[in-house]
Amino acid sequence: MNPIIQQLTKHRSIRKFQDQPLPEGLLETLIRAGQCAATSNQVQAYSVIRITDPHKRDRLAELAGGQPYVSAAPEFLVFCADMKRATEAAERAGAEVVRGTSEQLVVASVDTALMAQNVAIAAESEGLGICYIGGIRNNPDGVSELLALPEYVYPVFGMCIGYPAQDPEVKPRLPLESILKQDRYDDSQDQAQVAGFDEAMHRYYQERTGGRKDSTWSKELAPLFTTKLRLHMKAFLEKRGFGLK
């Protein structure tokens, strides 16, 4: 593997950081790297908000479900899907724009995710650690109000960045055969492959916690489909002007 692929395979979520700021100018370099990600029709449908106000950090940590590393990380960014800038630019150029389509929601969300992953990879290449904070969507109204987000802009996730103060193991991933399919969607081996992966994840949890965590990948999915539904997101996105058409 070349150095870039090696770097990609070492990703871990970091939740404990050294009390060490990023060198001057490095954050801006990371954001510029993020801007180099692929973007649909050059729309660049994202904005990134750097949170330096400690009171806002603490409030965001609370809104995200009580995640202390949001307050403690040297840098915390909120990545926002942003269709406001592009639609207004097109309008000024003479277009009769149509706002609030589902396609615009998809484009803005994908653009934001691609841009953020570039930032994450760039940060890790500099010896930094990152942690995505999807809990930003626990209370998107509160986050939007706190950050003065306008219509056609919504917070997708946050990201903690800093020098790691922990060295967790890389989490196993599903076997390649579960993900890479040829010519058609074939799930005939999914049950067996998932069973094997559950065994691998059980060993991982046991080793990481010294035997205290008795779980599997399948068991850990439960909240996503039972309690962590975030059903408020539909109404929130419609209120922000997304996904109406």
UniProtKB/TrEMBL annotation:
NCBIfam families: PRK10765.1. SUPFAM superfamilies: FMN-dependent nitroreductase-like (SSF55469). One of its GO terms (molecular function) is oxidoreductase activity. It comes from the Bacteria. It comes from Marinobacter oulmenensis. Its EC number is 1.-.-.-. Belongs to the flavin oxidoreductase frp family. This is Nitroreductase. Pfam families: Nitroreductase (PF00881). The keyword Flavoprotein applies. Keywords: Flavoprotein, FMN, NADP, Oxidoreductase. The keyword Oxidoreductase applies. Residues 9-163 form the Nitroreductase domain.
